[in-house]
Amino acid sequence: MRSLAERGAFGAALAHLLTDVATPLRWEPWNPYNDHRAYPSARSAFAVDVVLVADGRSWPLDPVRRALVGGAPERLGPCARLDLVRRPERFSAGYGEFADVLVELELGHLLAALADHAARLGLRARVAGDGVVVCSDRETGAPAPRPPARSSGFGPRGVAADPRPLPAAAWHAVVAALPRLAHVRHRLAARDVEGVPDGWYDADRPVEPGPAVARLRDAFRHPPDTVDVGSANLALVITGDPAAAVADTGPDGYRALLRAVGSAAQRVCAAAAGAGLFCRPLRGVHDERLEALVRAPAGHTLLYLLVAGRPRVTGFTYDLTPLEGRP
């Protein structure tokens, strides 16, 4: 990324944006999927590529080498575009059409991660279709701190949360990150959070008291030595109405709904990371059981499940951030 960083302050900020968000930040040798970036990807497939569009050309990002393929633009105007290219073929053929769903969710995660971190770097960013337009009207200062290190939990013998109660501040951080989306409903479950009774919530409004998180075990297909969902302190179940989204916005409505949910989940993951929590998207669930558990409205289908808690252990990772970016 050095050649881009040499294109003035805007180029340096773009280089930091791409490095901080779209390249590996750490390697976890004891986790089944080792490559960790600023956003989650199913099976660490990272099925969305980033392409810088500037100076009349396209410059794909090679995330492993932290370099733009073909060099770097000779000139940068006040704005550049980051196009996101879907690569569903990185999932095995057994995923079928579900690979497209996973790609749209990941695309939403990446859109939010790029836009949010651009703001930290003093850049203006707006989501435009399947990309982000990034602009700088002024000379940017020193690079901003990287986003809080996202964690999916440490699990050589199954991901599980620290058994101690979760501080209320972590709960409030996650609640504050929940957006309101058309045709979408969030149900947030709390377990053993200081000052927050166990149960299901609509944001911070109680909906149904009781052992909500523990009941997730009935809907999760995998045993506790993979992920002990019942130990989590927080669980977010997102359902939505695809038919209503299509009727409202047209044929792309379902894809747009998935991208919006992915962006919302990214902001929840970032808030959880800032509060010192792991936040892990889960699949491998019995959809109908989970929809029934959260009393999903008619027409709604399960779109996403996130579980969060404080990790039992930390470390056991290789820090892959560039030396100049470390504190």
Going across the biggest sheet, name each strand in turn. Answer: 5-4-3-6-8-7
Average pLDDT figure:
89
* Largest sheet report: 6 strands, antiparallel
Helix content: 25-40%
- Percentage of residues in strands: 15-25%
Low-confidence segments, given as residue ranges, are: none
Radius of gyration: 20 Å
What is the distance, rounded to the nearest whole angstrom, between the alpha carbons of the first and last residues? 19 Å
Judging from the principal axes of the Cα atoms, what is the shape? globular
Topology, number of strands? 15
Q: What is the H-and-E element order?
A: HHEEEEEEHEEHEEEEHHEHEE
Ordered list of secondary-structure elements with their pairings:
Elements: H1 2-5, H2 8-22, E1 26-27, E2 35-36, E3 48-54, E4 57-62, E5 67-68, E6 79-86, H3 98-120, E7 124-128, E8 131-135, H4 168-177, E9 184-190, E10 199-202, E11 205-209, E12 234-240, H5 242-249, H6 253-274, E13 278-281, H7 287-293, E14 301-309, E15 318-319
Antiparallel strand pairs: 1-2, 1-15, 3-4, 3-6, 4-5, 6-8, 7-8, 9-10, 9-12, 10-11, 12-14, 13-14
Labels describing this entry:
alpha+beta; 6-stranded antiparallel beta sheet; 15 strands; single chain; 27% helix; 327 residues
Give an account of the 3D structure.
By secondary structure, the chain is of the alpha+beta class. It contains seven helices and 15 strands. It has helices spanning 2-5, 8-22, 98-120, 168-177, 242-249, 253-274, 287-293, and strands spanning 26-27, 35-36, 48-54, 57-62, 67-68, 79-86, 124-128, 131-135, 184-190, 199-202, 205-209, 234-240, 278-281, 301-309, 318-319. The strands form three sheets. A six-stranded antiparallel sheet has the order 5-4-3-6-8-7. Strands 11-10-9-12-14-13 form a six-stranded antiparallel sheet, with helices on both faces. A three-stranded antiparallel sheet has the order 2-1-15, with no helix packed on it. Helix 2 (8-22) packs across helix 3 and helix 3 packs across helix 6 (253-274). The radius of gyration is 20 Å and the shape is globular.
